[in-house]
Amino acid sequence: MQSTSTRRIENARPFAFSFSLSSTALIVIDMQCDFINPGGFGASLGNDVSPLQSIIPSVQQLLAVAREVGMTVIHTRECHQPDLSDCPPAKRNRGNPMLRIGDEGPMGRILVADSDGAQIIPELAPLDSEAVIDKPGKGAFYATPLQDHLKALGIQQLIFSGVTTEVCVQTSMREANDRGYDCLLAEDATESYFPEFKVSTLDMIRAQGAIVGWTASVAAIKTALRKR
Ligand code: TIU
Asked: Which atom in ligand 1 lies closest to the alpha carbon of residue 169?
């Protein structure tokens, strides 16, 4: 049952985060096979993908409690059309990957929308009622219907989770921050291929009086969501 009552995460950092269930959405960023499983885009960039697998249970917990209390849930996928018309050459040609976006890999074409690799991992499969926003960039707002979707639902606050902390999650939080949303990142439901980048990202988000937003543990978020 949805409620408009105000919730508070007292031990969020840098200070308490207040929100209401009806105006808040949980955003799960890019929990796709291409980033989390061997043989995908993340691995093609030379990364060890195993650290990302460690957050699957925490994201499952967040999803379960959000669904239990009737909070809006939105998933994103970083992916491209089969003809790559939405993939700038600068993005495809960047770096020296073993496989480029659109190339055939063990999970089908890398980061192409209908390939196996671009799908959200089965453990975190979206419900039919939950929006899945496909995005061609790192940020969830650029060239997507996300802002219109949030406006239609009256959403003002966003709780973020997913991968990777300093790339798609942070970019999306910064885009959201500039659009006037209060943003909180679930500390143990986000991960990076680079542990030090995750630590720095959490620090920079909440620095200067929450310049980008707040952070809190999954346990603290769950407690606040379940509070009657
Ligand atoms: N490479 C990396 O850390 N991330 C991405 O390319 N995309 C997302 O973060 N989803």
From this structure: 9
Query: Residue 209: what are its φ and ψ, rounded to 5°?
Result: 70, 45
pLDDT at 4 over 60: no
- Ligand 1: distance of its center to the CA of 36 in Å? 10
**Rounded to 5 degrees, what are φ and ψ at 150?**
-65, -40
Residue 190's φ and ψ, nearest 5 degrees, are: -140, 150
pLDDT digits (tens, 9 = 90+) for 23-43: 999 999 999 999 999 999 999
Measure 182 CA to ligand 1 centroid, in angstroms.
Answer: 23
pLDDT of residue 5: 79
Structural tokens at position 20? 């209401």
Confidence of residue 3 (pLDDT cuts 50, 70, 90): low
